[in-house]
Structure formats: C-alpha cells, structure tokens
Amino acid sequence: MTDVIILNASPRESGNTHILCKECADAIEKTGLSTHIISFRGKNIKSCIACNSCKKNTGRCAIDDDGLNEIIDEIKDAKGLIVASPVYFGTARGDLMSAIQRISMVSYGGDRFLSKMVGGPVAVGRRGGHTATIQELLMFYFINDMIVAGSDYWNIAFGKAKGEVSEDEEGLSTVRKFGENVSLIINSLQ
Ligand SMILES: Cc1cc2nc3c(=O)[nH]c(=O)nc-3n(C[C@H](O)[C@H](O)[C@H](O)COP(=O)(O)O)c2cc1C
C-alpha cells in the first residue's frame, strides 16, 4: 500500500512534470509517508464510453485494456492523490482528463473511494495556461469530496525543454510546500 499516488500525465521521459512530481514526492517522503509516481508515458488511456457499467458497484471500469483499472486499484489503497500535467493549449493533457473522468465514475458508482482523499493539481508549461489548467483539474477534487492542500502560490512552474523547470526555484518550492501540506493533512487525519 502506498500513502500518496502521484499521476504524471506527461508522455516525456524524465520531463518537467516528472521533476515536479519528484520534488513533491521527496517532500512527502521526508515526513514518513510513501509515494508512487505513475507515469502515463507509453500508456494509451482511453475516454469514458458512458456504458454506465461502473454504476453497478463493480469497482472497475469496463475498459480493461489500458491499465487504468490497475491505477484505480492503487488509488483505492492510498490516502492521497496528486495529478500533474504539462499545459497543452492552455489546458491539461487529454489523457489525464480521460483518466480522472473514469476514476470519478468508478468512485461514484461504488464506495466513493475518492472521498476524503487529500491532494491537488500541479501544472507546468512554457508560458501560459497554467492557472486555467489548475482550475480545470480542481473540478475533479471538489466534486469528489476530496480535500485539497494549498501552498504559498498556485502549483505552477515554468519550463519548455526537458529539465528547464529545475531553474524555476519558486515553482519547485511551491510544489515542495504543497507536498508538505498534503502530508500534514494526511497525518492529522490519522
Ligand atoms: C502539444 C503541446 C501544447 C503545448 N501547449 C502549451 C501551452 O498552451 N502553454 C504553455 O505554456 N506550454 C505549452 N506547451 C509546452 C509544455 O507545456 C512544456 O514544454 C512542458 O514543460 C512539458 O512538460 P513535460 O516535459 O513534462 O512533458 C505545449 C507543448 C505541447 C507538446
């Protein structure tokens, strides 16, 4: 069982989203909680097909060939869930939206495993659309009765080429503090 699952929606290996996920994971692990960063690289996460089979409390999505059910199983055992995305045309990556819509449907149709989970979104981009991406991803948290941790800025960072985000010290420190707050809430709820 892992305490906090971090979804990294970037298709790039060791890209900027990964660097932010790692920064956040390290801050969480320093407090004694465990983390698992799950990369979407190489996956082909499909969109909800509105078959409604998850409404029969199956605890699973009917689309069973893209690895999302395995991610759902890990999330069910965790206390925290963080989603991190590169900004694509001012929004989150499409496959992350597909994933969180299907995760929401399975939670809604069953035992509401997302309820009271702690977390929040993280976004990285070259220049613009970060706050819109954060707002878009927050919709997932607020409709699912989740508890969102804050930081001393929004969880956004700047970088284009792989690794560039390492130069954004303010972005890194915002995400570190966010990770500490995720841990603080989880540990306070125990
Ligand atoms: C298809 C595409 C669309 C993008 N759109 C935006 C955008 O709207 N705003 C922005 O600031 N950066 C945009 N970018 C740049 C990425 O967000 C940026 O390179 C980011 O650091 C990539 O993260 P990664 O290394 O984790 O993949 C876009 C990149 C791609 C490939």
Automatic annotation (TrEMBL):
<dbReference type="InterPro" id="IPR051796">
    <property type="entry name" value="ISF_SsuE-like"/>
</dbReference>
<dbReference type="Pfam" id="PF03358">
    <property type="entry name" value="FMN_red"/>
</dbReference>
<keyword id="KW-0285">Flavoprotein</keyword>
<dbReference type="InterPro" id="IPR029039">
    <property type="entry name" value="Flavoprotein-like_sf"/>
</dbReference>
<comment type="similarity">
    <text>Belongs to the SsuE family. Isf subfamily.</text>
</comment>
<feature type="domain" description="NADPH-dependent FMN reductase-like">
    <location>
        <begin position="3"/>
        <end position="159"/>
    </location>
</feature>
<keyword id="KW-0288">FMN</keyword>
<protein>
    <submittedName>
        <fullName>Flavodoxin family protein</fullName>
    </submittedName>
</protein>
<dbReference type="InterPro" id="IPR005025">
    <property type="entry name" value="FMN_Rdtase-like_dom"/>
</dbReference>
<dbReference type="GO" id="GO:0016491">
    <property type="term" value="F:oxidoreductase activity"/>
</dbReference>
